[in-house]
Amino acid sequence: MPAGIEKFAAVSIVLAPACIFLAYAWSRTSQTITQHQILTGISAGVGSIFIALLLAIPSLFLAIGQGPLGTALVGAFPGSGINEELAKALICAHLIFRAKAFEEPGEILLLCMLVGFGFALYENVGYLSGSKDAIGLAYLRALTATMMHMSLAVLMGAAAVHVSRTGNFTPFVATIAGQMVLHAAYNFPLLYASALAKAGDGFSPGIITANSVVLILCVVLAVVALNVTDLRSERSSDRDYYEPLVVAGGIVLVIFSVVTAAVLNVVPFENRYVRLAPLHSYLAFCGPPLVLGLEMILSTWRKPSRKPGHPAAHFYAPPAPRRSRTIQPTTFGRRQAR
User: Fold this and answer.
1) pLDDT along the chain (338 residues), means of 10
2) How many CB atoms lie within 10 A of CB 108?
3) 3-class secondary structure for the chain?
4) Extents of the domains making up the chain
């Protein structure tokens, strides 16, 4: 296969689950978004990469002279988790709260997801461009790192919607801090396992099973956030005609997960440093697409409830409309304000 076609196919593979995830969230928002807003979000995500690189410079000095554990901790927290999530949060906060470029709840959620999409796009292109097996690496990252970036973007978007409705930034800041911890917890097992392998100390493949658990937790939290966040607005439109596409996308992810499980049963995943345990392989590569795919299929039969007891109505209810100040005459002939 020519190198150019192989790279294009690899980029298409690595972004396919992200596109399905984005389309599913878009169908839940009932919000119309313009091409300009889409390009703005993706461009902002690509630009946040450079902010993340600047924020990661101190970690280069902190990692000097560290052992495997110290190297992994520095790489997971200041070297990836903290700087990357902070960079994306700064970009989104500027566009939403400063520039006021995205004001409707659906627009805010989609902006955060587009920023995460742009970040994952640039990051994946960087990894794939230097890989000899671009297709294999793309398949791996499509089911792991890309899903993680999109899931954390959903959490940030839900928190930003809450700020736009209430004006309280505390949940937004707490969510960003949680994203940093989740991102670092996702990276740490892989970095620690690789550091041990490079040092020749050996390790149990079960160490990085925690990576799979964190990844599935990110996807589950994103699904919950999409279900409890009220994304209605005055400019919402009826998007029920997208339901067949949502079901089709969910079926694709479920098939993707089943085929991956069948392949891993025959050919266990192995890279230069790590031969993954069977449990980790199934959890990491089959769990996230299976969770999201089943949610997409079942969501078409489970309409979100708007009853007063529903979490969406209780925590993320839109503000009550203001009553207009009218002047009406009283029985005594006076005019009374109401």
Assistant:
1) 81 92 85 86 95 94 89 94 96 90 88 95 90 84 91 96 92 96 93 81 67 92 91 59 80 87 65 53 81 88 49 40 42 44
2) 30
3) CCHHHHHHHHHHHHHHHHHHHHHHHHHHHCCCCCHHHHHHHHHHHHHHHHHHHHHCHHHHHHCCCCCHHHHHHHHHHHHHHHHHHHHHHHHHHHHHHHCCCCCCHHHHHHHHHHHHHHHHHHHHHHHHHCCCCHHHHHHHHHHCHHHHHHHHHHHHHHHHHHHHHHCCCHHHHHHHHHHHHHHHHHHHHHHHHHHHHHHCCCCCHHHHHHHHHHHHHHHHHHHHHHHHCCCCCCCCCCCHHHHHHHHHHHHHHHHHHHHHHHHHHHCCCECCCCECCHHHHHHHHHHHHHHHHHHHHHHCCCCCCCCCCCHHHHHCCCCCCCCCCCEEECCCCCEEEC
4) 3-320
pTM score of the predicted model: 0.84
Which residue shows structure tokens 């954390």? 152
Nearest partner of 179 among 151, 213, 212, 200, judged by Cα: 151
The phi, psi pair for 275, rounded to 5°, reads -105, 110
What type of residue is 282? Y
Longest dimension (CA), the chain: 94
In one letter, which amino acid is 236? S
Kindly state the tokens that stand for 318.
């839109």
